[in-house]
């Protein structure tokens, strides 16, 4: 293990004003995650692809033709899942370099904003996804998801800059809660547009395209708040950083060093493996829920938006509830309870009858309770296990390792549908990821991991 770097004084950065500004990036990007990533993109891309593969398809019928993607036959119903899989794999490779660079740039907040604005532009360009041009949708969602992940690496690392160890569960949970509130607010506005589109002089397709555009615009505008509010944060938490090799060359060299050093932090590595699996289950449910609801259970897009609104606003309270519970019982125990609840919810969703919207909403309430809490507390737990001066770099591992297998879930979902023709069988397969992740998390000794990383011990872990 290499010598720990000299640590900078962060007392002037750990203020309530900085914490509030930091939290607004959850508000900014959650609109894209909910409106685009969770609700509208997968069903709309599928509809565009159906027009390309089956131009004479009758209303309500299912397209059985195949699309040719680089010479490989792809079922229309699997295209969205495969696209998310491709975006995830690309992100897993790219994010490793983003973290190494972010720890060496003079203004990490500006880097976060620049990446976010590229992603928001891709999201706004989805307005032009129409006709049979499904290829445009594939390209834009890959760019948008890559930029979302890259900007989140820098954002998550800034949690360490703005919050003391004892405050991170609370600050992280408040950020997630604000994100669910913001994402839910824009989704509610889009629900109104999709409900009364005719009175607004719009077609249904135009209403969806405007909703996709609004998510990108929201992301771009509200990113200004953290960029301006955290503009005085400079450099890294380590006083001494070798910049002689330049940002790019030094970042690549440091990345190799960090990957080698990771074996000296076995608790951190075990946590990463656990998170990689149980978060894979969470991301697969998020990415596939609208497809499952519309295609398997027969719900309209407006009903799916109501579903996600329920999840969003319940998750606001759920994130705050989990944050308070972590202060009393410790984040690890609360996350383990959350994983058990996730498993039960997925099993429950398997048995929801087609068209049973009220029962489906019960499932949504259960998801909302555990969704924000498990993700927020996972972020704050991991922040305790990171060596000082390498925040972005280690959070890039957090994001990249999550994406390193999170494509397993969407890939498995797509494969099961392609070969079995059942979204029910596809959704129940997610349980295995929660089981493996929960088992690995029980092996994580947080006190030991915090000590090995050289960080201060919080009162409750």
From TrEMBL:
Primary location class: membrane
Cross-referenced PANTHER family: AUTOPHAGY-RELATED PROTEIN 22
InterPro entries in the record: Atg22-like (IPR024671), ATG22/LtaA_families (IPR050495), MFS_dom (IPR020846), MFS_trans_sf (IPR036259)
Membrane association type: Multi-pass membrane protein
Keywords from the UniProt entry: Membrane, Transmembrane, Transmembrane helix, Transport
Transmembrane segments: 74-98, 110-130, 136-155, 176-197, 209-230, 269-292, 304-322, 334-351, 357-377, 397-417, 423-441
Protein name (database record): UMF1 family MFS transporter
Origin: domain of life: Bacteria
Listed GO MF terms: transmembrane transporter activity
GO CC annotation, single: plasma membrane
Localisation: Cell membrane
Keyword Heme included in the entry's annotation: no
This protein's record includes keyword Cell membrane: no
Domain (Major facilitator superfamily (MFS) profile): residue spans on this chain: 267-461
